Amino acid sequence: MRVAALDYGAKRVGVAVANTEIGIAFPAAVLPNDIEQIVRWLQQEGVEQVVVGAPYLMWGEAGERVQAAAAFAEQLRQRLGVPVELLDERLTTLEAERRLRESEPRRAKHKQHVDALAAALLLETYLRRQRR
Question: Domains of the chain, with CATH numbers?
Answer without folding.
Answer: 2-131 (3.30.420.140)
